[in-house]
Amino acid sequence: MLARQLWRLGKHSAIYGLGAVVSRLIGLFLLPVVTHYLSRRDLGAVDTLIALSVVLVIVLRAGISMAFFRFYFDADDDAARVTVVRTSFWFTMTVATAGLVAGILLAGPISEALFGNHSRASLVRAAFVLLWAQMNYEQLTSLFRVEERSVSYVAATLANVVITVGATILLVVVWHKGALGVIVGNFTGTLVVYAVLLGYRRFQLGLEFDRGLFRQMQRFGLPLVPSGLALWAVDFMDRFLLLKLKNAAEVGLYSVGVRVTTAILLLLLALRTAWPAFAYSVKDDEEAKRTYSFVLTYVLFFSCWVSLALSLLAPWIVRVLTAPAFYPGSRVVPVLAFGATAFIAFNVMSIGIGRAKRTQFNWVVTGIAAAVNLGLNFALIPPYGMMGAAIATLVAYTVMFLGMTVRAQQVFPVPYQWRRVAIVAAAAAGLTVLGKALHVPLAGALGLTAVYPLLLLALGFYLPVELRRLRALVLPAR
What is the DSSP letter of 325? Predict the structure, then answer.
């Protein structure tokens, strides 16, 4: 049973990962375009507005997007599930439209607050169109996730990517629209695919809004909003503080490191897409506990391995994909990569609280992490710039994972394999430090990455059953 559950999660994560691979690799291929046609300040402005849109999405959604997954699987029949879909859809449409109208009207003051003048008001308006498109698009694609139709989800993602890339190249390279072209290109593909999905889902999207159900979803989702805001602060506040304590050019450099990190750590994107629907679909609590335990171990094994590779190969990746002015951005990649690993561990751990419907105190855990992040950013950015911001992010995500572990084990205790978790993390971190200390060349970076699973064997990480399966894969049947 466990093997079947893990296979199902792995299958859907792999398919979601395929979409993430194409999406992020194309994003990487666009880096030469973006870094050659935009200045550091322009790229910093784009990333700042994207960070702003993320926090506004958290506030506007009011936790309903997460409640959607929980209540969809709690529904007893198809009619009840359709009611959940329609209630979530119309709420999202209403608040996204209200946000768009407010953003267009207040574009000037927002530009003044962020950049010191009104010159980027058009960029602000474009960012709010992107916000509207993303909120509504993600609500519809969530249907593919709860239906476990990962192939359809990826098809929509790929269509979005192809249109987005084409529009961005036209706007930035051919028509020289600069930073505005980047944001307009980003929402063009989303809007086109969203229009198609509206037609495809028209029979599920009738005029129905269940107020009683909505109040239940609010009780589940609203406590997640402060937690989501704290998560945003950990993930994006460094952009604003770099902008104010340093300058937009420093944000531009930092954003290169962030983009490379998120582009390569495809496991995080794939798992975060598949994980909520999968985790809630395991009905038996004892089976869920055993499954969650192995998921954390295996996710950290692969994530730490990818983080090791990314950390050691970052200088060559950045040189291939960006203009020389952006090469220093590679310095933050190792710290951000392991921070992302701590974040995915937090995501795996937090599912127990969602399963128990005990989300009221999530904000305490994420709030403490956000406070740590804020304090470290103020202390470290003035002397160390973007590297200080990266260290603050790593520490905050680690605090968040540890805090969520304590809280989740109180409400839904799971027998996690802590010895194995410690081994995979320590081995990856140790090899990274060794490679950086020795300033290894490209061949050395590849060699240290390849030796990681062998080091785990020497440290006794693998279980006997895993060793038998590995031997069966490596050695031919006799």
Answer: G
Q: Residue 312: inside a domain, yes or no?
A: yes
What residues contact residue 190 under an 8 Å CB cut-off, 6+ apart?
130, 133, 134, 137, 160, 164
**Spans in the chain with pLDDT lower than 70:** 1-31, 263-277, 357, 359-360, 474-478
Helix (H) or strand (E) holding 195: helix 178-200
The pTM for the full model equals 0.69
Based on the fold, state whether residues 240 and 198 are members of the same structural domain.
no
Of the residues 166, 192, 221, the one at which a domain ends: 221
Gap between the Cα atoms of 69 and 60, Å rounded: 17
- Interacting residues of 124 by C-beta distance below 8 A, sequence separation 6+: 49, 103, 107, 110, 111, 114
Neighbours of 2 (CB within 10 A): 11
Q: Dump pLDDT digits (tens) for 60-102.
A: 988 888 788 889 888 888 899 999 999 999 999 999 999 999 9
Tell me, yes or no, whether 471 lies in a domain.
Answer: yes
Residue where the block lists tokens 């159900």: 213
The candidate with the shortest Cα–Cα distance to 354, out of 256, 278, 459, is 278
Element (H, E) at 240: helix 224-245
Please write the tens of the pLDDT for every residue from 144-196.
Answer: 877 878 778 878 888 888 898 899 999 999 999 989 999 999 899 999 999 99
Contact 168, 180 (CB under 8 A): no
Tally of CB atoms within 10 A around 195: 11
